[in-house]
Amino acid sequence: MRDPGRRSLRAALVLAACALAGCDARPAPPASATPLAGLRGRLLGLSGSLVLAGPEWAVDAAGHWRSTGRQGTFDVRVEGPSREDLVLVLWPAPEARFEVRWDGEPAPVEVVGGRRRVVTVPAAALTPGRHELRLVSPSRGAPLALRRIVLRPARAAPVALAAADLERDQALGQLAELGLAGRGARWRDGFATLGAWSERIDLGRDDGGTFVALVANLSGARARFVARRPSRGPDGEAAVEIEPGGDGVLRLEVPAGERRIELDVAGPPPGGAALWGGPYFVPVRARVPAVVVLTLDTTRRDALGAFGAPAGATPRLDRFARGATVYRRASSSTSWTLPAHASLFTGLYPVEHGAGVTRDLLARDFETLAERLGARYVTAGLAGGALLRHGYGVAQGFGLYEVPERWETPGRALADRALDLLGELDGLPLFLFVNLFDPHYPYLPPADSPRAPELAAAAARIPAGSRWRELARGSGEAWRDLLEGRIAPEAAGVAALRAGYAAEVAEADRQAGRILDELERRGLLDAALVVVASDHGEFLGERGLFSHSARLDPELVDIPLIVKYPGQRDGRAVDLPVSLVDLFPTVLRAGGVAATPGRGLLLTDERALAARAGVLFEETEHAIHPLLAASRLDRALTGFDGGAGRRVEWSAGEECHDGAPPQRRVLPCTPALRAAHAAQRGEVVAGARRPAAHGESELDPEERARLEALGYL
Which residues contact 513 (CB under 8 A, 6 or more apart)? Predict the structure, then answer.
């Protein structure tokens, strides 16, 4: 897989830079200007060639470079015609076997001294742009490991690879691979610079506004980031100084009549990286509402009071719903996190975007909600769960995107960070996405949860010696055994599990409430578009099933959806079938941005919603998403909810329900329902496009073990 998941195992390393003259002394800005719109994904301050190890490389305990899959890539970035050959000297581990390819073609390898492998790329092949050097094992079982790597450019001192560099410079390889750069938990969709750097930027308009960059210092020295207007004048320069590993916000007001600014960074040593998230130019005339999208991971529709949960289950979101629009017949596009969020961000069904279906990530050639809103908004995303890490492609377009260091970031920490961002970006149009992951197993709410006494009492009723006590304590091993049918349901254990789940939903409610309260305190809530939705639901013992994925039952696909439109103060309910894909055009319209064609309809256009035959959802087995045999009906299922009812189909059967939530009744499938389902599915499949494929999916051992313990693999 592209992005295996650990901080040290996801690194992408600058191996060396050839001819980096100019990085150690800040050059004068050129007379011409670089378009602001052309900065995304670029690596600036580079002269010559730069070689970056792909994210599948890792350093093992013995200090060897080792690929997590059958292949290891090096991304070669070339600026300007090269006059020098590129020489890569590899010291394989004794057991390593591989061949080398340059831009997909076999490359000559010279064996020196019986051990070293020397790969020489002639200058003629180093044309400006991006190239790929790939080491490929002959078979799945053959290891791909290197003791040492040295880049030896002509007329320059050899540069040896050090394990410490892997951690230090991971950002740049991810920039080349995904258009995202970052370190640890924080990533940016923008551009990167090396060493001291300066450039003149064309903003693309001269009607005045605010330039904003979400900057980070990845070098080993203090760095000073500057944005200035060439005309200077009062307040003509903005600067922020950042310590190594730190980040901040650079903001410059630009008056009407000025179109160009100068950016520079001073302090980083040669090759030291600086990140520029975004950047953005927000016009003065861009009066747009704040846009906040909160996803409640793994949250059933009936877990919220507004949809039938017992009074007091989710008091903060229930209060919010009383002044918003409640969609009582909303469906996810699937039953697990990655494809559901990809549908929300693209307005496409999983069979169309392919994330978690035909690919292990959302391909870059799909335009996301954050990318579209980035024309008018500063975009920030806070992902609570590991399946929304940047490497899965869902971070595209976010100027700042923060991910869990390991499996989960608690909702309290996410809410803390959301409140910080609302302060740091005060006065700017903001698109904020927050994924509250608390309701996902293990169901272990914080000690100060209002439901802690109730949960403790439920756990105490589990008989001594029962493995359900392990489940109540959050054991991943016991959870896996439960999902695979090796632990039988027990009434007291199921009750305790449900109590834990309800407590985690209550914690998500509490943290969502903190974010809503801060929006209100800052005077943003009334004019804002605020969306609260789940990505999928959860089995809690129904029909002996637990967790999610593998099926499309109502407990998994029926989701809560609450939308407060700008200026809305009175609550209302809508009973028409709607889907996560409908959020894409709805959010863009509220932000004043034209929507690209997709499957979604405007949630405000209830006439069009009523005329639509229905909405789809699906579940498909994939390399990163095998389906557990104990709950699997088939390797692929497709579902439909429309005026004719609800239907799920697989190769060996079907199941139909009426269309009346919250309690759906199983009914015989009718020819009309089958026909409506087939027509809608056929239309979507016929229009689906396939992005370019990439290498096979691979997970590093730690990530695989973690996902297996939670029932994913």
Answer: 315, 316, 317, 320
Q: What is the CATH number assigned to the segment(s) 14-36+45-179?
A: 2.60.120
List, for residues 183-217, the tens digit of each pLDDT value. Answer: 778 899 999 998 899 999 999 999 999 999 999 99
CA distances from 428 to 239, 279, 369, 431, 515 (A): 18, 13, 18, 10, 17
**Spelled out in words, what is the top-level CATH class assigned to the domain 181-282?**
mainly beta
- DSSP string covering 202-239, please? E-S--S-EEEEEEEEE-SSS-EEEEEE-TT--TT-EEE
The predicted pLDDT at position 85 comes to 84
Kindly state the percentage of the chain with pLDDT values over 70: 88
The pLDDT of residue 165:
61
| Dist. CA 495–CA 588, nearest whole Å | 42
- Whether the CB-CB separation of 407 and 479 falls below 8 Å is answered with no
**From the CB of residue 114, how many other CB atoms can be counted at a distance below 10 Å?**
5
Query: Environment class of residue 301 by beta-carbon count within 10 Å: exposed (0-12), middle (13-18) or buried (19+)?
Result: buried
Residue limits of CATH 3.40.720.10 in the chain: 291-709
Exposed/middle/buried for residue 380 (C-beta within 10 Å: 0-12, 13-18, 19+): buried
- If DSSP codes are grouped into helix, strand and coil, which group holds residue 149? strand
Question: H or E element: which one contains 636?
Answer: strand 636-642
Between strands 653-657 and 48-53, the pairing is: unpaired
CATH of 291-709, one of 3.30.1140.32, 3.40.720.10, 3.50.30.10, 3.30.70.240: 3.40.720.10
* Span 575-606, pLDDT tens digits: 999 999 999 999 999 999 887 767 899 999 99
Concatenating the DSSP letter of every residue in 534-581 gives ES---EESGGG-EESSS---HHHHEEEEEEE-TT--S-EEE-S-EEGG
Contact of 482 with 488, CB cutoff 8 Å: no
Ranges under pLDDT 70 in the chain: 1-31, 140-142, 153-171, 177, 285-286, 597, 660-663, 688-713
CA triple 372-213-206, angle to 5 deg: 75
Would you give the distance in Å from CA 72 to the centre of its chain?
Answer: 23
Residues of each domain in the chain carrying CATH 2.60.120: 14-36+45-179, 181-282
H helices, E strands: number in the chain? 16, 40
